[in-house]
Amino acid sequence: MEVYGQDSAQLDLSQGTPRFYIMRLPARGLQFGNITHHKRVSQCLGGLSDKPWYMAVARSGLEEPQEEDIEAFEVPPGTFIKLEAGTWHAGPLFDEPQTQDFYNLELSDTNQNDHYNTWYEAPIQVRL
Question: pTM (2 decimals)?
């Protein structure tokens, strides 16, 4: 068992009631039409499948991330990731299987009161 310490993910869930749940997402391929950020909370995501998935991110502080500001990476099976408050993100992204289940840890009202989007005219294709 790993002991909690300074190298562990430092979460900020102090702005409300934490919510830990499983979300079942359909495969949308490795592209996205919008990118999101949450100003008040860090967020953790982890896949329950034995398949990898992908995340596209841009640094916090950008007003509206452009395609050149976005980087994508593969998340191996069994890995949890932490997004700092304000990190722009699109995903989880995957093209197979048809659905995947993910753990999600955020605030109970994140998607109602702390959900900011930038929409793109054409979908952005993930480049790895």
Answer: 0.90
Q: Distance between CA 43 and CA 69 in Å, rounded?
A: 20
93 in Cβ contact with 16 (< 8 Å)? no
92 upstream amide cis, omega within 30 of 0: yes
Contact 126, 35 (CB under 8 A): no
List, in order, residues 6 or more apart from 21 with CB less than 8 Å away: 103, 104
CA distance 68 to 98: 29
Q: What is the pLDDT of residues 78-97, one digit of tens each?
A: 999 999 999 999 999 999 99
Helix/strand/coil for 111 = helix
Which tens digits make up the pLDDT trace of 9-31?
888 888 889 999 999 999 999 99
Query: What strands lie across the sheet with 88-93, from one edge to the other?
Result: 71-75, 53-58, 88-93, 31-37, 116-125
Distance CA 117, CA 37 (A): 7
Distance between CA atoms of residues 128 and 121, nearest Å: 21
